[in-house]
Every structure is written in C-alpha cells, then in structure tokens.
Amino acid sequence: MNLVVVVVFLSDVSAPRRYCLYIADIGDRGGNVPVNNIYVVREPATVQNSSVDLAGVLKFNWTEPDAETLLISPDARLFVVSKVTGGKATVAQVPLTAWNPTSRVDLDLSQSGTLKISTPSRDPLGGALSPDGKFLLIVAEYNIYFYSIVNGDVIKTLNDQVPTEVNTYVRTPSTQSIAWAQDQKSFFILPEGSDPSLYAYSVDTSSSGIVVG
Predict the structure, then answer these.
(1) What is the percent of the chain with per-residue pLDDT over 70, rounded to a whole number?
(2) For site-directed labelling of 31, which of 65, 75, 77, 132 has its Cα 20 to 30 A away?
(3) SUPFAM superfamilies, from UniProt (predicted)?
(4) Is cis: bond before 124, omega within 30 of 0?
C-alpha cells in the first residue's frame, strides 16, 4: 500500500510557523478498492515513534481505481491525479465540502481534466506544485514533466498544456516523491527502496518558463 505525504505550511496566528502533513490513502491497496481518504496532521516537532492527533480528514469518491499523486496549491486547494497505463491520467479537485468526518463527497468529474502525456508505464507516480503555485512538476516512471500554471487554473492547465520534459533528469526507477525547494531554484526526488538517495536538480523558470537543469 502506498501513502502520499505532502508537507504544507499552515498559517496560524497561535502557531506562526506550523506545518501540516497531508497523508493521502488513495492507492489501489494491492488490487483492493482504494480508501480515498486524506488525513491532515500537524507536523511533529521531533522525528520519533509517537502518535499524533488528526487535524482533519477528507473523504471522497471517484471512479478512478488507483492514484499516487496529491497536489496542494498555496491557497489550500487539493487535487488528485489518477494513475493509469499510458499516463493519460485524470485530475480532479477535492472540494471543501469533503472536510466532513461523517460523510463522503463525490468528485465532480464534469470539471476534471486529462493529462496530455504518453508513457509506456502506469503513471504518474507523483507531483508537486511550486510554493508560489505558478509551476508544476509531474514525475512518471521514465520522465519528469514541467508545467506553467495558467491563471492559477491547475485542471485547465493539465488538460490543455503539453508539458516540457525535464531534459536533465536521469531516470531513477520507482521515483514516487518529488518536491520543490522553498526558493524554487531546485527540486528534489526520492525513489522507493531501502536507504534511498535524495537527488537534487536545479531549475530555471525565468526564461520562457522552461526547466533547463
């Protein structure tokens, strides 16, 4: 079972520098029906074995049987991207009404989009919006794709835009974790496995919005 974890800064007057972990249980769980729950916890102050309290939970339904990508915008909009053979995955927004621990919300697939990528494997494996929300990276088994988000519309951008492949990326099999540096001058990837290495790639978004590495 794969869990998607995203760290997000939480602006809070009572705790001005607190972060949240969004833990998405949205995969196929070894061929079983996905749970499609997104759990939110405050990031612990220290890394240790301990229990944490839930800050919130989102529950939703959709028709996609598998997903490994959760995207979170700077204004706290949440998007899930399915995982399909060939990479032409579905992206949909998780509405605010999903913040309800007692009921489950159906995603509005009439407002969904389809990625314009073509891959030989089941993709995508992960993704990350930049801290300012203007750029997006999607990682697949063999490539990383770069998008410039148009007018803040994530779904329309993914549905309409043919992304740029990151030409400096050296394939690292089973890379499912990708994240931007806070200054947006680089990004990081982390593959699955025991004691994996963390890889960093430089980014230049100042010239035509292209990642040049």
Answers:
(1) 87
(2) 77
(3) DPP6 N-terminal domain-like (SSF82171)
(4) yes
